Amino acid sequence: MNRASRWWALPLLSVGLFIGCAEGGDEWKVRPDPAIVDFPVANAEVVTQELVDPPFLPPHEQVASGPPRVVNIRFEIVEREVEIAPGVFVWQMAFNNHVPGPVPVVFQWDWVNLTMLNGTTDTIRFGTTDNQLAHNVDFHASTGALGGGGLTIIAPGEEVGLRWRAVKAGFFVYHCAPGGEMVPYHVTTGGNGAILVLPREGLRDGYGDPIRYDKAFYFGEQDYYVPMNADGTSRRYGNFALQMGDMLEVMRGLVPTHIAFNGTYGALTADIRLEAEVGETVLMLHSQANNPSFPHLIGGHGDWVWPYGKFANRPDEGLESWDVVAGGTAAAVYTFEQEGVYAYLNHNLIKAFLYDAKAFIHVTGGWDDELMTNTFTARPIGGDVP
Ligand SMILES: [Cu+2]
């Protein structure tokens, strides 16, 4: 039996202990298990996670089935021009050719082992041109060296490796942060995403009972500061670097010209159809790397909402709207009870409807009259009330 496999039974035992004492008051909290915290990286199993484009997450377990692991992930940074709204073109900084960047999923106390490229190994697949500027990554979930930003700065054509331990459980922003005015420039052109760090024992509700979700959707909210022409189209530039001066001038006004979920207008209302069934529990993950947001699910609720998207905190129950702080996240679960189209949006409704900070979730599976029904349908005023 090798050293790693001898540790295998410990977390399973620990999960039993956690659930047994997880009731009421401060006992909701889970004490860190020294056998997990002190587990040496040299003994950790190494696995590779293939990242996928948001709003989806890679396949993952919701409860850790073994000791902490080293999870290999790969970021390829692409500078690319994208039409984010009709006639509006932005040179984006895109982790893995997508805005927002992909969502790695690990457990608390795992190690994230990143290989990051300034550029791609497969330019044909990505259809990109050569990158112009240096990039790096700051993981809010990590500890030290500017969140890794100090150890990952790379010029176009370079790659770098960074391993860090996921010491906090929650949904955490990551973003490019190459220094000075480059920081907001890279973040507001799309250079951000978020990582999901699950508690090893899985998510728990306010009673301490396990929560298991059927689906998870990631709503990455992006504010843009686009130099516009008088006719409603944007100015165009030859590359990411040439766009910067004019864009910084728009940014100084602090008023976004465009706000989108998943990078482009219509991404989650028309281009991608999000679906769920009545009875399914959906984990709704939201990040905004540069501004606050106020998630709301029209027609539903946050059954359980973790303050600041951090799972070491007892979740709040039955919320109508909740908070995303700038450079932060939200995490909420909802179990759908009625069919219909639900809008998940920023309840700054100007940002939702005059801009595009919204998504639709199409829910099928039946209607419960006990929860809601027309007592009479629209008619001229003056009829009898049944
Ligand atoms: Cu960058």
Overview of the molecule:
- The relative contact order is 0.13.
- The protein has two domains: 3-200, Sandwich (Immunoglobulin-like); 216-364, Immunoglobulin-like.
- Mean pLDDT is 93; it is low at 1-25.
- The chain is an alpha+beta fold and 386 residues long.
- The chain contains eight helices and 21 strands.
- The protein is flat.
- The termini are far apart.
- Residues 93, 135, 176, 178, 186, 191 line the site of copper (II) ion.
CATH topology of the largest domain: Immunoglobulin-like
In terms of per-residue confidence, which ranges show pLDDT below 50 for 5 or more consecutive residues? 1-25
CATH evolutionary superfamily of the largest domain: Cupredoxins -  blue copper proteins
Largest sheet: 6 strands, mixed
Q: What's the alpha carbon Rg, rounded to whole Å?
A: 22 Å
Assembly annotation = single chain
| Percentage of β-strand residues | 25-35%
Query: What small molecules accompany the polymer chains?
Result: copper (II) ion
Helix content: 10-25%
